[in-house]
Design a protein that fits this description.
mainly alpha, Non-ribosomal Peptide Synthetase Peptidyl Carrier Protein, Chain A
Length: 85
């Protein structure tokens, strides 16, 4: 099972890879849009999270949970509910 920390690391790496912002500069509480993450990249992020963690997520999840911390917690909770953990 993946932890919130693991998911946050995945999200941070995803953002860094797509935007060119160094991973160490990505703050957990900062709005993802402030790093230049656009709508298409946000949808890509949700798809990548679904593939990696085996959960079904709404496409607008990034907009409902717009920080690394909020998004990673939301995905961790959904993953735990899916696995019954």
């Amino acid at each position: 099972m993946s932890t919130e920390h693991d998911i946050a690391d995945f999200i941070t790496t995803f953002i860094a890879d797509r935007t060119g912002v160094p991973a160490h500069d990505i703050e957990l509480e900062e709005n993802l849009g402030s790093y230049g993450l656009g709508s298409m990249q946000a949808v890509d992020l949700v798809g990548s999270l679904e593939d990696r963690y085996g959960v079904s997520l709404p496409p607008a999840l990034v907009f409902q949970y717009p920080t690394v911390r909020e998004l990673s917690l939301a995905v961790a909770q959904r993953a735990a509910a899916t696995t019954g953990a």
